[in-house]
Every structure is written in C-alpha cells, then in structure tokens.
Amino acid sequence: MGKISKYLPSAIMSTSVAAPLAYIAYIYRKDDRQKQHAILRNFPLLGRVRYMAEHVGPELRQYLFSDDNEGKPFSRLQYQDVVKAGKYNERLLGFGSNRIFEENGYYIRNSLFPKLATEMRVDNTQKTNSYKYVVDNEGLFSRKEHHEEAQIDPYFLRDEDAVVLGEGKCREPFHAKGQVGMSAMSYGALGERAITALSKGLAAAGGTWMNTGEGGISDHHLAGNADLIMQIGPGLFGVRTLSGEFSWEAFKEKSEMKQVKAFEVKLAQGAKTRGGHLEGQKVTEEIAKIRLIEPGKTVNSPNRFVDYDSFSSLFDFIEELREVGGKPVGMKIVVGDVEKLDEMVKYMRDSGKGPDFITIDGSEGGTGATYQELADSVGLPVMTALPIVDELLRQHDIRDRVKLIASGKLITPDKAAIALGMGADLINIARGFMISVGCIMAEVCHTNTCPVGVATTDPELQSGLIVDEKLYRVTNYVTSLRAGLFNVAAAAGVDSPTKLERKHLAYKDDRGRVSSVGSMLHEVQQAEAGQKDVDSLPDK
Amino acid sequence: MKVFVFGGIEGVGEHVFKQLAAEGHETVTVAETDNRAEALRMLGATDVVVSEKNENFTGGIDGSDAIIYIAGSSFGAGEDQEILVDYEAVIKSLEEAQHRKTERVVYLSPVRTDESEESKETGGKYKAEEWIRKSQLIYTIIRTAKKVSKPGKGTIKAAETIAAADDEIPHEDVASVLVAAINNQNTFRKSFDITEGKSSIKDALDSL
Predict the structure, then answer these.
(1) pTM of structure
(2) Enclosing H/E stretch for B146
C-alpha cells in the first residue's frame, strides 16, 4: 500500500508525458513515410489539420459560419421550420422574414379581402391527440422545456373537398382528407425505427399516406396502420418471382391488404434516373422476404421496366394492375422530354387508358444514393415540370381524369401551396419527414452510418432514435403543414387549399418585374420546335 | 332531450356537440354563416339556425328542454382567448329562455377559478352570474381552471371554490361536465368550480 501511494503519483506523471510523446512520434513517422498524400510527407502531423478541417467543414458551416439562408439542400431556417413544427406544433416567427426579396422567385398573390377563419372549409371535427414541447425558459447554454399532451386540430379537408384517386375508375378509390403525404422511402434506406415512427405518426395524424418506396411493404411500414401507397419499381421488389419476373400472385396478395390504398409504378426519381444496386451483405433474411429476393445475394435493378418500353405496353400493364388489384394505379415520372410527354397525353386521350395519378418528382428531389451528374442536372425542377404536365393535360382535355402529386423540396406550407397553385392536387414530402424523425442533414444516407439512426439499419445507431418521442413530431409536422395550407388559402381569398390556382401565384424576377405562371408549355414547345428546325437544316 | 347550445364555437363547444350527439340528445344552435352551420352539423348539431348578426335566433329556444350557455367564446375569437363577455347579451338571451319556459340552464362562466377580483369586474364578467342566481331559472353555474387543448382524462375535482393558480382542465372534460350536469339534480341551483382531479365526473358532481 505504502509503496503504491509513494510511487503512483510520479508514475502517472511520467506516463502521462511519455505516452502522448511516443504517440506523436509514431504518427509523425507514419505521415512522413506514407506515399498517398504529398502534404503529409512535407508537413507531417501539421498536414492532418487540413483533413480534419475539411471533414468537419459541413458541420462548422451549418452551425457557425453560414448565415440562416445559406446551406443546401435546405437552409438552416428551412430546417428549423420543419423541426419547430414537429416539436412545438407551432410556426410563429417574430420580427419578419429572412427571405432575400431581391432574388427571383414565386410569391402568393394575397387577396384584399382574405377569408375569415369561420369561412374556411376545414374539417376539425375529429381532434388529434398528440404530444408537444413547451419551452419554459430559454437560456444561452440550456433550454428548459417539457413534453406535454396536446389535443390538436387535424385540419382535414371537408369530405366533399377530399382529393380522390381513381374515382369512378376502380373498385376502391382512395379518398385523401389532406393534401400532404410521405414520398417514397424504402425500408433498408431508412431503418426500422424511423419507418415505424413515420408509420405511427402519420396514422395518428390521419388524412395522409405513406409511400413504401420500391423496397416493398415491410412490417415497419405497417406498424402504425397508416394508409400505404405501394411503389413498384423496375426491380419489382415485393411483386416478383425469385427469378425476377412480375408475379401477379404476389401482386394480388399485396392488393388485398387493407392498408394498401394505391399502387405507384415508378418510372423515374428526380435525383436518381438510374437503376438500383443492393449489396448482398445488406440483403438480410427480412429484406429478402419483403422484396422477394434471395438472401445474401447482390441485386441490381434496371433503370427501366424491361418489359415496358412504349406507352401502349406500359398503360396496358397499368390497366391490368387496376383491374386485378381494384385500387388506383399511378406512375411516378421526372419531366425532361416534353415532346414525348405530349405524345403520352395524346395516347391517354385517344385510348382512354392511363394512370389515375401522376407523381411528378422534380430534379431537386432527394435520394439515399445517387451520382452527382444525375442528381444535379438530369430532369427538370418541379416548379417547371409541374405546370408543363398540368398544361399538357388541360390542352388535351383530360385534366379531370388524372390527379397530380408533386414532390421536390416542398417541405414548408408556402412551397407546397405554390405547387398546389401550379396544378398539383397532392404533395409528397420525403426529407421533411426525415427531419421530423431526427435527420440533421449529415448527408451520409448512402453509407449506413447516419449519426442519428434515421437512414441506417445499424441497430446501435438506431438505438438513439426513440419511436414514441419521434412519432408525435411526425403527427405535428403534417398537421401544421395542413394548417399552413389553410392559412395561405385564406390569405389568397379562397376557402380551401384545393382551390389554389395559377392566378394566385406570381413570379418576380431579379429586376422586380412580375409575371404570371402559365406560359411554361408554350415556350418549351416553341424551343423544341426550334430545335427541330435546326436539326432538319441541310448540311452545308 | 332537446338542448339549445349558445356559443359552441371553439374548444369546449365542439366537444359539447359531439358528446350531446353521442348521448342521443337533439341539439339546436345558432351559426353566423352557412359554412359554420355546416361545421356545426358535422360536429353533431341537429338543427342549426343561420342568423347573420345573431338576430332572430331565440326562435330556436322554443321547445328546448335545456340550455347550455358557453360564455366567453365568440365568433372569430381565437382558441383559449378569453374575451370580454357582453353580459347584457347573456342576460337578454336567458330572459328570453325564461319567457319561453325553458328553465334548465347550465352556464359555463367566463370567470376563471383563480381570477383576481379586479379582472372579474372587467366588463362586468361576473354580473351575468349574479343575474342568473336571482332568476327563476334552474341554473348550474360552473367556473373552471384554465382550459387547455389536451386530451380529456374523464376525471375532475369539483367544489364550491377552488383557487389553485396553476391548475388546468382539458376542453373535453369541461364539455363532459356541462353535458353530465344537464340531468344531474344535485347540480341544480348551484354554483361551483371545477379543475383537474381524480374523481369521476359523476362522483364529483354527486358529492357537491
């Protein structure tokens, strides 16, 4: 005992100096001898600062250096708007907007005589029981807040205003009492806890839907009993034979599930006009069972439905899906080739066939994994794509036959309202919902190392995500989005967000001049016609 | 039973309509616009008189067996917003009820259990209560703690006076008390306070 107490202090002292020194010497030598990085060979140890700074750059910019309007894909403020709606079910702000009004962008034309709250065609008959945070005291280093029960207004559409998919065309049309739902997110891309929280939160909110993503229907999607739209991608996951053919038997089984309200055939995704790749090690027994593939084996899915390469074959497939399933069938597209779309709409008009809804994903849409060239430059953004499709359908007089769902960074009520005004009937949101279950925009969705356990299947990382806390944030986020849509509608002078039209929108350019939304298609068609003229010029 | 509901616009009122409908009562009420009338019917109101400036609405009282009067909320007033109550309007409406032989009145007072004397006098909030107590009506006057939008618990505390400052009570529970009081003879010609508590609503009202 005596010896230990005598020598221990000096032993600790000497090791605490010697050990770090030895480590530093080791690193120095290692840097000096490696052949990969010139900077480390020339500046051993010191050169590491560069890599550290580069690595934590996004976080530093996000938290310290970028201003509130900077940051992509979502600015700090947009991110906070989503988080606050989820936590506090409230969206009030003080002092004024932080939008940069000198820039060009869309605005909502407010009426001189807005609608009163009592004039709005809202249905708040059924209340939603949720939980929200209430701030007790906000200090510099800590915020004191508590979680409490709340009975909130759901902001449903009235029954007569509900948006109906497949009305008069299938045995079981889908009535949406709200205009905002969850865009396609597969189990596997998101972990079971995130999917479960989303399913439960959306079910509690009601009047919304959950798109399963092309990875099939997992038990986690079913956990909360939310209304599901099952997506069918070129990989045919969940509706295939083991050898990769479409299985009508498996499809029939899915269509008989009461939670499944509609099907969506996915032709493309904004950020990812490419096929999928699922590494064999990620194909667990569970994933294999859901997707109907072999466990442990790598699966590559094509970037197009192999069997369908024309409108007639694709629409015949859609007709059969509707006939066999009895539920609405839609398709998800990215707008690029307007001439081809015109051909499609004409074919829809002439044949009487076609989808019950078209989901238009803007090129700004998100994904768990893609390539830069596809994410940044392939396909048109939603605010251009949507009015083009809307106009094409009107031009050929079949707008009433099909509903339009828009997606692409529409995570706040104002953006969603603008899309509704441009012709969308419904709005799909993915990343907004990810943020509501805890996403901090670390942008590592493709690596399975999501630090907040949202876009990962790693059980350890997921243990940080508490389903019973996050589900209410989902409920609050979607109901406050709907409340926001009613707010915008009232300001625009209409009694329901379903009545927002192009005339309620204005586009202001960077010189302050205002134009209306409407001429999109005309200009694109002219440009395409011009292009054709150039192509047909005789060679010199 | 046919119940006439005054002021059933937000918070407590919405639950009152739903609960009356659930218990099989007929409900009559007044709405400012057709749109509000539709919303009230969705909540379960059986007969809605549309009256633009709250005129000619008293006709609806005819043939009603009881009245629930929710004071303190008005058209366009925000949820949880305690506004000044036009006590003269309350008195006028209830005089009309008395005249039309509808004697049973459950009155939800805008005066809060923990309200200061000074605040009670603002706009004469308390005066309607005094008038009712002196009238021939078979009244029940209820004051509540702070009303909040939280899910109802089905349990309360009721007593002649409760003065707990931080108490609150969900709208849903206040509505349950109003509906339960209509036929509960133990609440006849009584004024009492309610707040959150552990007794079932029936027990709490029976033991007053």
Answers:
(1) 0.88
(2) strand B146-148
